[in-house]
Design brief:
It is a single chain. This protein is α+β, with helices and mostly antiparallel strands and 201 residues long. It has five helices and six strands; from the N terminus they run H-H-H-H-E-E-H-E-E-E-E. A six-stranded antiparallel β-sheet has the order 1-2-4-5-6-3.
Length: 201
C-alpha cells in the first residue's frame, strides 16, 4: 500500500511538471513564434524529442508551418506593398501599429568573398517593413535616420520589428529594430509618407 501510494505521488509530481512545462512552452512560442525546437529545449532544459512531443500534444505546428500560417495572415492585411515587394517574409502585421518580418540570408547576399551580409539587404528589409506597416495604397520613405550596430553572416535569420509612433497629417514615424538572435544589428527611425494618387504622375 505504501509503495502504491509513493508511486501515485511520484506520478502526480511528474504529471504536474509536464503540465508546467507545456504551459511554459505555449507562453514561449506566443512570445517568440520563431523559436526553434532546439532553442525551446535549451530554455526548458528538456530534450528536443520532448519538445516535439509536447507540441504534438498541444497541437502547436512546427516552426515552418507556423511561419507559413503567420505569413498568410499578415499578407492578407498588406496594402501599401505587393507581397513580392516586401524584402523578407512578412510574418505579423497590425496596420498602423506594428509588424514583423524575417529575412533568411543566403550566399548571394555576401560581401565579396566573405560570409558577411551586405548592409543594403539589412536596410532594404527595414525600409520595406516601415512601408508595409502603414495602411495606405501608396507609401514611400520620406527620410530615415539609422545606425548599424552589428553585422550579419550568411545563414543568419534577420528579425525586423516595426512600430508606428507619432502620426502627423500623412506622415508616420516608424521605428524599426533588426536582430540576429538576441543581438541588435540595426536601428532605424523612418518617416513613412502617404502619397496621394494624383501626385504620383
Amino acid at each position: 500500500v505504501i509503495i502504491r501510494w509513493l508511486l501515485r505521488g511520484a506520478t502526480s509530481i511528474k504529471s504536474q511538471r509536464k503540465k508546467n512545462r507545456q504551459e511554459k512552452l505555449l507562453k514561449l512560442i506566443e512570445q517568440n513564434p520563431l523559436a526553434t525546437d532546439e532553442q525551446l529545449a535549451g530554455i526548458l532544459s528538456a530534450s528536443i524529442s520532448t519538445i516535439r512531443l509536447d507540441r504534438a500534444v498541444l497541437a502547436v505546428p512546427e516552426l515552418r508551418e507556423r511561419m507559413r500560417s503567420m505569413a498568410q495572415k499578415a499578407t492578407s492585411r498588406l496594402r501599401s506593398l505587393k507581397q513580392s515587394e516586401v524584402v523578407g517574409d512578412l510574418l505579423e502585421l497590425e496596420p498602423n501599429k506594428w509588424a514583423l518580418s524575417v529575412l533568411e540570408t543566403r550566399r548571394e547576399m555576401a560581401f565579396r568573398e566573405t560570409d558577411m551580409v551586405w548592409d543594403h539587404y539589412i536596410y532594404a528589409q527595414a525600409s520595406s517593413i516601415a512601408i508595409a506597416v502603414v495602411e495606405a495604397d501608396f507609401v514611400i520613405v520620406d527620410s530615415m535616420r539609422g545606425e548599424y550596430k552589428g553585422h550579419a553572416r550568411v545563414g543568419d535569420a534577420l528579425i525586423a520589428r516595426a512600430k508606428v509612433g507619432v502620426r502627423k497629417d500623412d506622415k508616420y514615424i516608424v521605428s524599426v529594430r533588426t536582430k540576429v538572435g538576441d543581438r541588435e544589428i540595426f536601428v532605424g527611425r523612418f518617416i513613412a509618407a502617404i502619397v496621394a494618387e494624383n501626385r504620383l504622375f
